[in-house]
Amino acid sequence: MTLPIVAYGDPVLNTKASNISADYPGLSELIHNMFETMYAANGVGLAAPQIGLPIRLFVIDAAAYDEEQFKDEKRVFINAEIVEFKGEEWAFNEGCLSIPDVRGDVFRPETIKIRYFDENFKEHLAEFSDMPSRIIQHEYDHIEGKLFTEKLAPLRRRMVQKKLEQIKNGIVSVSYRMRFARAKKK
Q1: How many domains, the chain?
Q2: Please, what sign has the CA dihedral across residues 129, 8, 166, 154?
Q3: Given strand 74-96, what is the order of strands in its sheet?
């Protein structure tokens, strides 16, 4: 089942998420629904806060960038903690399903080491580089209560402010379901 994606302006997007346990109610169905929602919105990652849940859970599938190179980069991250950042920071023009029609260059380190549990609550300590690292860092920011717009250059942040206000007020057109903190102004 596809779920509505929470739009910019909802306080859940700025809340540091809480860890969950293996007996979290409906976890398997939630993970399935998150992947379905992400694919329906043409995304490559989706964090639980983006569907209104302040829990440390996100899913990614980097295959959209390069199906062959990243075909095995469909993953579930539960209670994730980045333990190390490595390499040069590089810019990439990021966007976000919760902030449609807003994009901007964000600098992130090339490589991360992250500790997390998968959907079977098996613990992993893994290193990711390139696009999977970037997607993970973006989704990790969501469970930390941070948005990519906070990492934009000051001039770019000022340039997108009007669009952010429109999104906050429900004035946006997307091909997927969204949930807004405030209703559209008439």
Answers
A1: 1
A2: negative
A3: 45-47, 57-61, 74-96, 99-117, 123-129
Confidence at 183, pLDDT banded by 50, 70, 90: low
Condensed to tens digits (0 to 9), the pLDDT of residues 142-164 reads: 999 999 999 999 999 999 999 99
**H or E element that contains 5:** strand 5-6
Share of the chain above pLDDT 90, in %: 90
Residue 53: inside a domain: yes
- Does this model's pTM top 0.85? My answer is yes
Q: Which of 139, 144, 150, 165 is catalytic?
A: 139
Answer yes or no: 139 catalytic: yes
In a domain, 186, yes or no: no
CA-CA distance, 128 to 113, in Å (whole number)? 6
Q: In this structure, what CATH number is given to the domain that contains residue 169?
A: 3.90.45.10
Going by C-alpha positions, the residue among 46, 47, 50, 57 that lies closest to residue 18 is 57
